[in-house]
Amino acid sequence: MIEIIGSLVILMGSIFLFAAGLGVLRMPDSYNRIQTGTKASTLGTILILIGLAIYHPAWIGKILLLIFFVLLTNPVSSHALARASHHRGVHKTKHTVVDKLHEAKTLNGSE
């Protein structure tokens, strides 16, 4: 029974990782791709790690450390990529209506 639960959790994680891949292909600009890939891949990776913890209870300490690492590094790295893209002037889709970073730079006189 435990193996079935672990397999289902791993399957759910795989579905989220697949959705992340589809999101990266389908989104209109790099900012949306970064956001889609990060959210879905973070959840997918964590679900797969939880499924592994169900399979191998002795690994729970190491898996919790890996989950913490994923939760810390995925959002930070995607934020850094998005800020660097914005700084380099990577174009947004024409449907983007809010650009808070541009507004903040304009208000501060940095631009």
**Main sheet summary:** none
Low-confidence stretches: none
Beta-strand percentage range: under 5%
The global form is elongated
Give the N-to-C terminal Cα separation: 60 Å
Per DSSP, the total helix count is 4
Supply the helix-strand structural class.
mainly alpha
Q: What is the averaged pLDDT score? A: 87
Q: What's the β-strand tally?
A: 0
Helix content: over 70%
How many distinct domains?
Answer: 1
Describe the structure.
- The chain has about 110 residues and is mainly α.
- It has one domain (about 1-110).
- It is built from 4 helices and no strands.
- Helix 1 runs antiparallel to helix 2 and helix 2 (about 30-55) runs antiparallel to helix 3 (about 60-90).
- It is elongated.
Summary of the model, kept short:
The chain has 111 residues and is an all-alpha fold. The protein has helices spanning 2-26, 30-55, 60-88, 100-108.
Fold blueprint:
Elements: H1 2-26, H2 30-55, H3 60-88, H4 100-108
